[in-house]
Amino acid sequence: GRAECVHRWSELVVGDRRETIAWLGAKRVIALAAIGNPDAFVRQIEQANAVVCGQLVRRDHHSWSESDAAELGRLVASQSSVDAIVTTEKDWMKLRAIDWSTLPCPIVRPRVDVRFIRGEAELRERLLAAARRRPLIASR
After folding, report:
1. What is the 8-class DSSP label of residue 87?
2. CA dist., res. 130 & res. 32, Å (int)
3. Is 26 left (phi over 0), alpha (psi -120 to 50) or beta?
4. Considering the entire predicted model, what is its pTM?
5. Cβ-Cβ contacts under 8 Å for 13 (sequence gap 6 or more)
6. What is the CA angle 82-80-72, rounded to 5?
7. What strands, in cross-sheet order, belong to the sheet with 51-57?
8. How far apart are CA 1 and CA 54, in angstroms?
9. Dihedral (C-alpha) 124, 130, 131, 136: value to the nearest 10 degrees?
């Protein structure tokens, strides 16, 4: 059998505080992502009732740089108003090294919960069996 999971946004991190997903409702946002399926990410933002007024999308595993930050600044300035930049936790790990203090809006990232639909017990057993077969620390 196969293990199947669903993931859903559980909450948002806005600066140093937590907010519900409803915080995005009716806000004008720019989607910022370097992931394998950015369209799905944009759809999730729209499902939270935000208006995606711009996107800055890069290839998966992109290393964000100051030139990307400048492009984002231009994108924000080109809009009549932007309430937030929405990015992924994965991207935020790379973005946080850049100084974003000049942005007129917060960078927001959703927290994701993963829940098994089926196969959790079987997957757990397989992982434990594989771990038992092979020592975790190589002996010398």
Report:
1. E
2. 38
3. left
4. 0.81
5. 19, 108, 109, 110, 111
6. 50
7. 17-19, 4-14, 107-118, 84-87, 28-33, 51-57
8. 41
9. -150
Write out pLDDT tens, residues 86-106.
999 999 999 988 988 889 999
Mean pLDDT taken over the chain: 91
Q: State residue 51's pLDDT score.
A: 97
- pLDDT tens-digit profile of 17-61? 999 999 999 999 999 999 999 999 999 999 999 999 999 999 998
Residues 6 or more apart whose CB falls under 8 angstroms from that of 2 comprise 118, 119
Residue pair 85/115 in contact by the 8 Å Cβ criterion? no
Q: Helices marked H in 1-140 — which ranges?
A: 38-47, 66-78, 89-95, 120-133
